[in-house]
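Input record (one chain):
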Amino acid sequence: MRRLSLDQARRMALGAQGFTEPRRNGRVDVRHFRRVLRRLGVVQLDSVNVFVRTHYMPFFSRLGPYDRDALDRWLWRSGEVFEYWAHEASLLPVEDHPLFRFRMAAGWHWERLERTLEERPDLLDRVEAEVAEKGPLRTAHLSDPGAKPDGGMWNWSDGKVALEALFLVGRVTTAYRENFVRHYDLTSRVIPQEVLDLPTPDDETAQTELLEKAARALGVGTYDDLADYYRIRGPRARPLIERLVADGRLVEAQVEGWDRVAYVHPDAVVPRRVEGSALLSPFDSLVWHRPRTERLFGFRYRIEIYTPAPKRVYGYYVLPYLLDGRLVARVDLKSERKGGRLQVKGTFAEDGADRPAVAKSLAADLQETAGWLGLADVEVHRNGDLAEHLAKAL
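The corresponding structure, as predicted from the sequence alone:
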């Protein structure tokens, strides 16, 4: 069994996630986008836009400033990327499409859809036929989108439910997004034919491959860390991980301070050092599994979007701040687009952090971030124990 100090495990994880490579000084192009996506394997999508759409951030955190329109063109028009349910709603390399067909074939267990189909049993076929005739289209383009029930944002219309069900089983997919709204088309018109022609692995083979991909992307992780990456159920994942170990495709490891066995991909290396800084999306794959984030970095992180404002500890949309291999601060950000300001609504240093040094580095990163987003100014609110230092640094 391999033995790793906690510091070695951190460096291994950061190296696997691409944080030991120097950020780009020159133009960022498709080659760099491609490298980030294939290294991570999956980039999560999320609708919250108070700062910036989350899928832009993993590329920015690892590459530095780039043209977001260029990324959009690659994501939605190149044929190299597809959207599906992986960690959550996610962007994935198109060559991995066969690995998710087991999930598509599993169908749905969705009470709302089942109720809808009882009342309208031909709904899916009719909506699919309309996509075939008119696609790409969004829900509002359907001739009969259906009334939206009273209630919250997830009380979708019948048409939206049908499109999402067809998406889940792989009959339609995302052709592109416009203002983050999904436009659906037949999968056969979006996914390249050479990918559709690839053989479909059985469920066990597909999930085993995804677990190995998770291990490669994480560098080091427990069985539940690996299972969480592509949301493979723990009881299913454990015997598959044991088989990967038996086949030499994973190596067991003991990490200092961890109370359970970890797994390391044979290709993982421990970088000599980790230098540099990055703001991280709350949905970045480095930190999205909160128990692992706490084990690796001693950083207890909970997103507070759904917490009532008076009960929030750090803020609405809080980004961890990475500096020289440690998570040293939390930054609550909001883009005030009309006013052209990046609002820093709260800044909080972790215990033991050198506040002036962290503030100096963070000030430079916030100015760079504002410029990337086309915002002219950075406004620091006097909230948090790092705010005064940050204001001085700016």
